[in-house]
What we know:
alpha+beta; 8-stranded mixed β-sheet; 13 helices
Amino acid sequence: MIKELAAVGIAPFDESVYRAVxxxxxxxxxxxxxxxxxxxxxxxxxxxxxxxxxxxxxxAGTRRRYTAIEPRAALEALIRLRTSDLDRVRSVATExxxxxxxxxxxxxxxxxxxxxxxxxxxxxxxxxxxxxxEVITLDRPPYALTTSNPLEAAALARxxxxxxxxxxxxxxxxxxxxxxxxxxxxxxxxxxLPGLKVKLAIADRRLALMPLSLDLxxxxxxxxxxxxxxxxxxxxxxxxxxxxxxxxxxxxxxxxEEDRQLLILLVSGLKDEAIARQLGWSVRTMRRxxxxxxxxxxxxxxxxAGVIAARSGWL
Length: 315
């Protein structure tokens, strides 16, 4: 499977469609069926994604015909977009460094330092109780108190939107994956992002709570009110949300419920043993099912499987 453009966010199948259009200069989905060995409907979905990414344009007329955009200009635009994302990460790193320095030098009006797991828990409760529109979080172990969040279901019921990004390590804690699925059932929007190192909760984009370390022997957290630091944390959360993989999958599931759950855990970054334990399978069965799933998706590895499934709307 072609994968050279994966670094700029182009799925392997979409790249093969793009190359087929380049070879023909213009093409309709049905004309590419023989070249690619798949249905025109799947090709049409790929062409729509390529159109959104600026790689093809649709010609005028009632029949759907596409032409390729000149590759150098189109790909340079995607490269600049990725570079811009990385520049934003550098900017956020600077802002977080300022937050750390402020915490070291004492709290001001915008930053208040709390100590102890009980105080952290009280602030987390207050943040959710005062939320009127949304709560956005970054979640990862370890947990100073309980792993569950009984306040969230009530907040969701009164119309508060919850969007949460979880580290894969969170899914390995006993009961956490089940809790997340229950919250998703009540309306939480959940995603998973490997490499997540920060814990964070923000209410209505006006109040944030962030532990300053993951050391449970010295629990200290920053309460951040409207400021440039809060703006930076919101921007960092937005970046994590864009890069994360959805854990919920509403609508029709063409790959089956068991395979979908397997795929979610695969792209979440969990180890084989942890995935097998979550699904109640042996490691041998899990690896056999994984191999069959990757083959059916035309993916060479877990990352490609996640990209293909996400762009197909299965995740």
